[in-house]
Amino acid sequence: MTTPKSRLIGATGIAALALAGALVAWQASSDSPADLAQLSYDDKLEILNSGDADAVSDLLEAEEADAQAHFARERLERQKREAEIEVERAEAKARGAAYWDSFDPDSIDLTSFEFAITSISPPEKRREKLAELPIVNGFNRAAEMSHPPSKSDCNPSRYSRIDKLLKREAALPMPVDRQDVARVLDYLADRAALETGDCSCATQTVPIEKGWRLLMRLANHPSGETISGNFAKDRAMNEIAILFRTAMDVEARSFCERD
After folding, report:
1. What's the whole-number mean pLDDT along residues 73-101?
2. Can you tell me the distance from the alpha carbon of 149 to that of 140, in angstroms, rounded to the nearest whole number?
3. H helices present in 103-177, as ranges
């Protein structure tokens, strides 16, 4: 019959052997104390339950060192990603400046455009009609994507800049609001991406003034003179802006999602 004392000795001996096995396995696999943190969960538990203060201390120090190394790696990876985004942002900004500086909103062909398009039903028929006009088909498409979508937000302060523009510009014959401006900017961005193959912030960050110039042309279009009443004009302008926004967005998104 095994006595309580012999059972205690046996349990202690087993724990010691397990601890020794864990430490021997660690020592055999590495000369670095930090690698103690790479032991299995069961081996770490054996060390923590062993009562060996030095071994427990070594394990805790190794865990702390491993955690610090992990945080350092994450920080370096984050800094690397941020640096890559900054480089991409700078390159896109330079390309965008070259493109938009030479872009003339007056060059957009409004041939056959008229506000009567807003009376066509259903909305799908309106888009089909718009797609037949030079507004949509009057420029050449790029054969393939040259620059993928940017990793950063291209327009973080777009609406605040639109609001500032609306405050300083005189009222137009057809009322426009910030959503109208934003939708025309999106139309110009889709058009630029399809034309150049550049889906990055270079083409997506459309200068507000470029969109405003196109809106001025639309608001002053002779066909708008047949619309009576401020409410009717506001509705017509809103629907035209929506048509412009949706004119090429599906095509542009499909083009810019290519591998």
Report:
1. 89
2. 20
3. 123-131, 134-137, 158-168
Give dist(CA 25, CA 17) in Å, integer: 12
Helix (H, G, I), strand (E, B) or coil at 147: strand
Residues 6+ apart with CB under 8 A from 39: 22, 25, 26, 47, 59
C-alpha distance across the termini of the chain, in Å: 75
pLDDT band for 59, please (50, 70, 90 cuts): confident
Write the pLDDT tens digit of every residue in 175-190: 999 999 999 999 999 9
At residue 60 the predicted structure's pLDDT band, cuts being 50, 70 and 90, is confident
Contacts of 65 (CB under 8 A, 6+ apart): 33, 34, 37
Cβ 198 vs Cβ 147: under 8 Å: yes
Q: How much is the pLDDT for 259?
A: 55
pLDDT of 195 higher than 50 = yes
The span from the CA of 162 to the CA of 192, in Å, is 20
Cis peptide before 122 (omega within 30 of 0): yes
Report d(CA 90, CA 206) in Å as an integer.
15
* Secondary structure letter of residue 205 according to DSSP: S
Answer whether 59's CB lies under 8 Å from 36's CB: yes
Task: List residues bridging with 198 in a β-sheet.
Answer: 147
CB 253 within 8 A of CB 144: no
In this structure, the dihedral spanned by the alpha carbons of residues 183, 184, 188 and 189, taken in order and rounded to 10 degrees, is -20
> Is pLDDT of 127 > 50?
yes
Exposed/middle/buried for residue 22 (C-beta within 10 Å: 0-12, 13-18, 19+): buried
